[in-house]
Design brief:
230 residues; mainly beta; Elongation Factor Tu (Ef-tu), domain 3; YaeB-like fold; six-stranded antiparallel barrel; four-stranded mixed β-sheet; globular
């Protein structure tokens, strides 16, 4: 049996590249986006009552990771990227039907648009459905996940003398918490878990319309070098 689904909206996100997106929602509260609803859901009737909700579940497509051949086992970053686990024991982007889910904060409701924060979705992500978060049902007391019992430990984020003023300048221009976004995302250490780069290696990623570059002067320290227009 086959089913066809169509997006209800497209997410316009601060994340323009897959690299450095937090591996779970809520790890970067400063990560913001706008869900633009598609017809016929772009009318006020479709979101009536949603203003009473603080968080929503998004069901979406990993549109840049869709695969023809399903994977039975994957290598989750949380386990160092070298250990295989069954796909259904992980939240890997390599899903049988390419479907992901995230609970995100609802910052505002407008006809045709939802303002969101704490997101972990790439710009342009097709959203298949929106469901209100129900605290008494969705928060399970005593739940256990022995592979991921706690959030990953954050690493220190340092700034060069020039990078921090640059970030503040672009934050004012964008009207977005860019400094907090950079710190929250980089503190999750986006490099592959098995990688120990030399201090001279420079990484980069695009947030909003600026390119952020950094390196690792020490294995557990990130130093932001530059925040500049792409």
């Amino acid at each position: 049996m086959r089913h066809t689904v169509s997006p209800v909206g497209i997410l316009r996100s601060c994340f323009k590249e897959k690299f450095a997106i937090p591996r779970q929602p809520q790890l970067a509260p400063a990560a913001r986006g706008v869900l633009e609803l598609l017809p016929p859901f772009d009318q006020g009737d479709a979101v009536e009552g949603l203003e009473q909700v603080s968080h929503v579940w998004l069901l979406f497509l990993f549109h840049q990771a869709l695969e023809d051949k399903p994977r039975l086992k994957v290598r989750p970053p949380r386990l160092g990227g070298n250990k295989s686990m069954g796909v259904f024991a992980t939240r890997s982007t390599h899903r049988p039907n390419g479907i992901g889910q995230s609970v995100v904060r609802l910052e505002g409701v407008e006809p045709g648009r939802l303002l969101l924060s704490g997101i972990d979705l790439l710009d342009g992500t097709p959203v298949l459905d929106i469901k209100p978060y129900v605290p008494y049902a969705d928060s399970v007391s005593g739940a256990v996940n022995r592979m991921a019992s706690d959030a990953p430990a954050a690493i220190a984020v340092d700034w060069s003398d020039s990078a921090l003023p640059q970030a503040h300048e672009h934050a004012l221009r964008l009207g977005e918490p860019l400094v907090e976004l950079i710190e929250q995302c980089l503190a999750q250490d986006p490099r592959p878990a098995y990688q120990v780069p030399p201090p001279e290696r420079v990484y980069g990623v695009k947030f909003w319309d600026v390119q952020v570059r950094w390196h690792y002067p020490q294995p557990d320290v990130i130093r932001v070098l530059e925040v500049a227009p792409e």
